[in-house]
Design a protein that fits this description.
The chain is of the alpha+beta class. The chain is built from 5 helices and 6 strands. The longest helix is centred in the last third of the chain and has 21 residues, at 121-141.
Length: 157
């Protein structure tokens, strides 16, 4: 006997985790095996190197405890301005510099974290976003995203 059956795809949701899920080397297995994921990482890493003077790939792979960004020359001055433009709205609604210690006279700035920079929020969050974006784009490229899928995230995820 032969038979065929049509089965509806079960509802599928992809859930991305928040900040507590970071780990050294996260996303690097997919980076090594997927040209799509590698492309997502390389574009993001290039943008961060150009805009802020650091390699997110190096932080994810090596997790250094500190990193000094130098603001010398024309490129360094542009990077310093980019850091100076980062801000947040305080309780009164005023925009406050995120890194007030970086001024027009700052020659360099050192980021540090006792557990490594991957666990410092300013590096953890972009690393998580890129890890999750790379995984999503890889699934899309392989055609494994079902129709009507849902996305959800916790915290930053």
């Amino acid at each position: 006997m032969r038979a065929t059956a049509e089965v509806d795809q079960q509802p599928t949701a992809f859930v991305f985790t928040g900040q507590g899920s970071a780990s050294v080397g996260m996303g690097m297995q997919l980076f090594a095996t997927s040209s799509v994921a590698r492309g997502v990482w390389e574009v993001a890493d290039s943008q961060l190197r150009e805009t802020y003077g650091f390699s997110l790939l190096s932080i994810v792979r090596e997790n250094p405890k500190s990193l000094t960004i130098h603001f010398g020359g024309r490129r360094g001055a542009a990077i310093r301005r980019n850091f100076q433009q980062l801000g947040f709205e305080d309780a009164s609604g005023a925009v406050v510099p995120l890194l007030p210690q970086i001024t027009d006279d700052t020659d360099e700035h050192t980021f540090s974290h006792p557990e490594g920079l991957l666990f410092a929020t300013q590096f953890t969050q972009p690393a998580l976003v890129i890890t999750e974006k790379a995984a999503f784009e890889d699934m899309r490229a392989r055609g494994v995203l079902p129709r009507g899928f849902l996305l959800a995230g916790h915290s930053l995820g």
